[in-house]
Model the fold of this input.
Amino acid sequence: QQQELPPLITMVSSPGMGHLIPMIEFGKRLTNHHNLPVTFIIPSDGPPSKAQTTVLSSLPPAISHIFLPPVTLSDLPPNTKPESLMTITILRSLPSLHQTLLSLMTSHRLSTLIVDLFSTDAINTAAELDIPSYLFFPTTANNLSLGFYLPQLNQKFQSEFRDIHEPLNIPGCCRVHAKDFPIPIQDPTDEAYRCFLHHMKNYKLAKGIIVNSFLELEPEAFMFLKKNEPVVYHVGPLVNQDTIHNESEFEYGLKWLDEQPRRSVVFVCFGSGGTHTSTQTDELALGLEMSEQRFLWVLRCPKDKVENDSNFIANSNVDPFNFLPNGFVERTKGRGLVVPYWAPQAQILSHVSIGGFVCHCGWNSILESMVNGVPLIAWPLYAEQKMNAVLVSEEIKVAIRPNVGEDRLIEREEIASVVMRLMEGEEGKKLRNTMIDLKEAAANALKQNGSSTKQICELVLKWKGVITMPN
Ligand code: UDP
Done:
């Protein structure tokens, strides 16, 4: 009976924007190119953030969304790690997810449930209803290889990984120092590490892993992963390339960018959740000033000055300008534009005035820069960003990584120096040329017969044709 119903792709995305954004781009590809409707199912522990509702409400009608009833997390200790918070949010949402899937099944054939990194416990819920699951991996194939190698690393080194000083040779992964491992796996005794391992184990239950990267960017990693189970699909780079309307909230910023010379502005933004201490914020401001380059900076309140919660960036009323060094805005007037909290990054990076990007190395941010041929300053902060920084600065060579001082501070002189090297020097020119080559390779991967397009078609054939896949 289900066979006769129209197919529907369902996706579960954990709270936050970093996973939702690329999954939406994948959803757009499925609806626009393959006429497959998509429904997002979003668990949470409170009301949706402004960023979530803005993005979701702007989607075409073939992409719908359902917010599951918020769960309560008030019984958890205040120092619970974000990884655990997200995992527990999903675990506590499984009964309502089950109900939602059942209800969608009355009108649709659910071809698949695509889960994000923190939602892997939903794979069992889907299996109870005979729905095959796929994992959406929003970062690099290199990171996936590292994840799969973790049990062996654990056996080999009983100590904390950060005590290993020589670079490691991991199959399918670039040479990396343990200090650059993703934060949750730096310390095997930590709760976040156990959480990571729990999800890694669940990855094996998926029918396939969909990676938002492309073959030509990480050939060795994909070649390695393709030899293993589950099947890995490279579908990227999927990034938002919608044009922004002039009458948007950011109209003043676009106007300012229009007035700047081509490739003259360095864009500074640290992802959806990146914040600095007040000392680092001061150093960054003074470093940008010292560089004498044009800049567009998305500014957040320093983390030691305001209470931090997961919805903080989108919902706070505190004015981050209060925390800038005295006279900074006046002294850099005309040459610099500071935007509070949030700006349409993907569109900014596509503007001809942008010549460089001081980036926290979130994978979406790196891909958005790549599809526009913009070279980077790699300033990793959390999650797997240090691994991404190694990839872009040492392997594919499209980024400069600044030196971090002993107190983990990047000083103003260093900031000024890397910004100048990127925007004016020969080094910057070389990095830009490599990035422009990658821009072309990225576009080719998504052309009609491109490597990523072919993989998406393979998935679509499965999803259009069958209810459950043989084991
Ligand atoms: N983003 C944005 N405006 C901002 C900050 C972030 O549009 O002011 C978007 C950015 O374009 C990217 C996403 O938020 O698509 C951040 O994802 P990423 O993987 O780079 O980092 P995360 O936020 O997950 O650390």
In short: The radius of gyration is 22 Å. Residues 309-315, 466-471 have pLDDT under 50 and may be disordered. Residues 82-105 form the longest helix (24 residues). The CA atoms of residues 301 and 320 lie 5 Å apart.
